[in-house]
Write a structure and sequence with these properties.
By secondary structure, the chain is an alpha/beta fold. It has two domains: about 120 residues, no CATH class; about 190 residues, Glycoside hydrolase/deacetylase (TIM Barrel, Alpha-Beta Barrel), CATH 3.20.20.370. The chain contains eleven helices and twelve strands. Helix 2 packs across helix 3, helix 4 packs parallel to helix 10 and helix 7 packs across helix 8.
Length: about 325
């Protein structure tokens, strides 16, 4: 009996010692987290298994020093004399707290397990005011395919098949009268994950309309996008690229920014598919918006267009993805 009591006493003492160590470690970690939140340049080291206080302090200082060299500043949205509104582009910097914690958790102090986060520019696209957009940021190696749809469904299945095969999402700008006539086709496009946007209602020359007519052309299609497809839209593409400042203004009043294009397939002239591929290949540049329609020429050229863009190292996204400030691809270690 006496021996049992002795064993119990020893076990209790051991448990108390373990709890004391855990308590000290938790307190140290809490102190560190609070210090990081205060973003002090000198942060007290913590007690952690396998690493001394000095080792942890040295690690933190090294992360802070290297973070300065790895930082890429964000780029503000701006107005260009030729290209009009140019979206901004997020910067990237080291997340010091996350990097420290990930490195400690790895069980080794080298190599440092860097974690990055994006930094928003101070000036966004919508801060610029009422200007049209012809391209994305020239530092963003992404392009976008715009498909303006106002008539003809014959080549839409082929286009959708190609986009699905290539794992590419495009933005379809829909004429309202077409959407009203072919809601099921529009839903098929949407079900494939493509972005759906506004291309006016009856394909007018927007610059020739009075203010109320211009407003109505956009509003009718916007209502159909919401009621038929439940779309919360951001973009308006004027038919034939025809617009004036009034067009940009009335679109803005409805929460939409006016988007045109950087490169035109000119597929309405029925060129050979190889001609379109060569034209696109020669003009590709970061931030390019590529215009096409559901025609025989573009539907046949689309596989080659996508292949060439990928060969040149371009990501391909929707208009919304291209014109956002988000970096592409997702945050990775910047080149020194």
């Amino acid at each position: 009996m006496r021996m049992d009591r002795v064993k119990i006493g020893l076990i209790c003492a051991g448990m108390a010692a373990v709890l004391a160590v855990i308590s000290l470690n938790i307190g140290g970690i809490s102190d560190y987290v609070n210090a990081v939140k205060n973003q002090g340049s000198s942060i007290a080291a913590i007690t952690a298994p396998a690493f001394s206080e000095q080792e942890q302090t040295d690690l933190l200082r090294q992360i802070e020093q290297e973070a300065e060299n790895k930082r890429v500043a964000p780029i503000n949205a701006r107005i260009d004399r030729v290209w009009k509104a140019i979206p901004g582009y997020n910067g990237v910097e080291v997340d010091i707290k996350a990097t420290y914690e990930k490195t400690i958790a790895s069980g080794a102090l080298s190599p440092i397990q860097f974690v990055y986060k994006e930094v928003n520019p101070q000036v966004s696209l919508r801060d610029l005011g009422k200007f049209p957009i012809y391209r994305g940021n020239p530092e963003k190696k992404m392009i976008s395919i715009m498909v303006n749809v106002a008539w003809g469904n014959e080549y839409i299945p082929s286009i959708l098949n190609t986009l699905e095969k290539e794992n590419v999402k495009a933005t379809f700008f829909l004429d309202g009268s077409w959407l009203k006539k072919y809601p099921e086709v529009a839903k098929q496009i949407q079900d494939k994950g493509h972005e759906m946007s506004n291309h006016a209602y009856s394909h007018p020359n927007m610059s020739e309309l009075d203010r109320q007519s211009a407003y109505t052309q956009i509003a009718k299609t916007e209502q159909l996008l919401k009621s038929t497809l439940n779309v919360q839209n951001k973009w308006f593409a004027p038919p034939s690229g025809d617009y004036n400042q009034q067009t940009v203004q009335v679109a803005s009043e409805q929460g939409l920014m006016t988007v045109l294009w950087t490169i035109d397939t000119i597929d309405w002239k029925k060129p050979a598919p190889d001609t379109i591929i060569r034209r696109i290949s020669a003009k590709l540049e970061p931030g390019a918006l590529i215009l096409m329609h559901p025609t025989a020429s573009s539907s046949q050229a689309l596989p080659g267009m996508i292949s060439e863009a990928k060969r040149q190292g371009y990501a391909i996204g929707t208009v919304d993805e291209l014109l956002s400030p988000n970096r592409v691809p997702s945050v990775v270690e910047p080149e020194n």
